[in-house]
Amino acid sequence: MSSPVKRIFPLGFPWETQDPFLFCVYHLDHYPKGNNAMEPDVSLEGRNLGNDFVIKDGWRMYHGHTIPGFPYHPHRGFETVTIVNKGFCDHSDSLGAAGRFGQGDVQWMTAGRGVQHSEMFPLLNTAQDNPLELFQIWINLPKADKFVEPDFKMLWHEDIPLVQINNTTIKIIAGNFEGTPALEPAPNSWAANTDNEVAIWNIHMDENETFNLPPASANLNRTLYYYEGDEVKIGEQLIKPDHGAELISETEITIENGSKKSHFLLLQGKPINEPVAKYGPFVMNTQMEIQQAMEEYRLTQFGGWPWPHADNVHPREKGRFAKYPDGEVVEP
Fold it and tell me: What is the pTM of this model?
């Protein structure tokens, strides 16, 4: 019998992806307690502020100068799916939309023709540490949808389906797990068409458990990212943490866990199979379209920035919320 594992590869920063996924990054930062301004309550001396990607004392500031995170930056031509398992993310964008989400919430944003947004990590706890665990996944948009209107949708963790099979939990962020569908994605997403069989599942297995990954259609791209645990066995392949595995999609696959709880992210989907031209935050089909995107951003700033700071955060006392471009405010 042939192996269900096509290839095993080490996980870098970011993680390697397959069409229709463009990018996947895993952030695990053990932030200290915060001060009254939601900043780290420790010295930032010795950090390359503005470009701090080297883990020091267990955490990074990224592009933040006072609060960790990613001040305003543009996107065009794809979508971001941001999963915050621990900690919080403050979103602000050029449409006037905003949000604070975390503790298992997911934000699905379609950049489409162009949007600016910031993603900051306020340290809300002043008496204890502020751990952050976050995935950001970029899903491509096909040529026909590159210029759809920007949009975002909040998927609150209270509403995201969880399936429990023995001592394995599957969090269904996109796709359908054996009859349990995910919440609806953003409307213009490649994932919105169920024929594309897009799946984003966060899988948690107890030690010494066995889990069967169900079959899907043939010729999908399916990647399993093993980011925490001891070891697992898939077919005859032994896989260690911090590795990914490209899997066949059309047969059931048995995962046998080792002696520690294991955590995985699964990304699956029908490939778009179109040319991809990328330059930083822009993803188009040709280099000429990239040049056009850069020129348009230079001229229009994709609508400008309606917030007082590039690294905008919301008031400390604000709970989890989503404010949409039409002004509607939703809380979980």
Answer: 0.97
